[in-house]
Amino acid sequence: MQPGALNDGDGPGRRPIASRSSGWAIRLAGGLARTDVTPNQISVASVLFAGVGCALIAVGHTPLAWLAAAACVQLRLVCNLLDGMVAVEGGKKSAVGAIYNEFPDRIADTLLLVAVGYAAGVPWLGWAAALAAALTAYVRVFGGSLGLPQDFSGVMAKQRRMAALTAALVAQSVEWTFSDTRWSLLVAVALIAAGSLVTCVTRTAAIATKLRAT
Predict the structure, then answer these.
(1) pLDDT, tens digit, for every residue of 75-112?
(2) 41 FRET partner, CA 20 to 30 A, in 93, 94, 98, 117?
């Protein structure tokens, strides 16, 4: 894939993920590649996990529900890892892979972050976090459309957003055991919103720097 093309899970538009080289990921991706499962189906599965996580966050209200939601966040990320590996290393790329590689991520982010905002009692903050997260992806893809390598860096890139959310859900399960407050979720959604905006700014600044250098 040439710089500037949409991210189809390969080339300069492929997100660098350390766990891609781990043994469990290679074995699991290899096993899936030998089945009839397609990378696009795995991408859709990430939305399903996010949807379950959204429901658990919205109506669970128990320590077990918070922990199950955290597991859903991580399963969403596993799907995000495996779809690209099955497509590229497994040789199952499709003509519409770029669409499935991007759109489900935006839906999954929105489901999870909006739910956290409502659960924390500040719905607008959840929507703000979801919008800011979508903007980080927009800035990344915009840089690619200008012929630059897509920039996956930032204080609240996707993996860091989901790590913060997972930690918050686990912390909330502990907090809920002793109190009916939801400070863990509130702090997390605020940090994700602010960090995502910072990520937009730093990615935009990096694009401007690269453009001036060309």
Answers:
(1) 999 999 898 888 887 788 888 888 998 999 999 999 99
(2) 117
What is the count of structural domains for the chain?
1
Range of the domain at 88: 14-213
Answer whether residue 3 is part of any domain. no
Question: How many angstroms separate the CA atoms of 202 and 187, rounded?
Answer: 22
Average pLDDT of the chain, as a whole number: 90
pTM for this one?
0.89
For residues 166 and 194, the answer to whether their CB atoms sit within 8 Å is: no
CATH label of the domain that carries residue 18: 1.20.120.1760
What is the three-state SS of 140-163? Answer: HHHHHHCCCCCCCCCCCCHHHHHH
CB-based contacts of 11-15 (< 8 A; 24+ apart in sequence): 12/144, 12/149, 12/150, 13/144, 13/149, 13/150, 14/84, 14/88, 15/84, 15/152, 15/158
Q: Mind listing the pLDDT tens digit for each residue in 102-145? A: 999 999 999 999 999 999 999 999 999 999 999 999 999 999 99
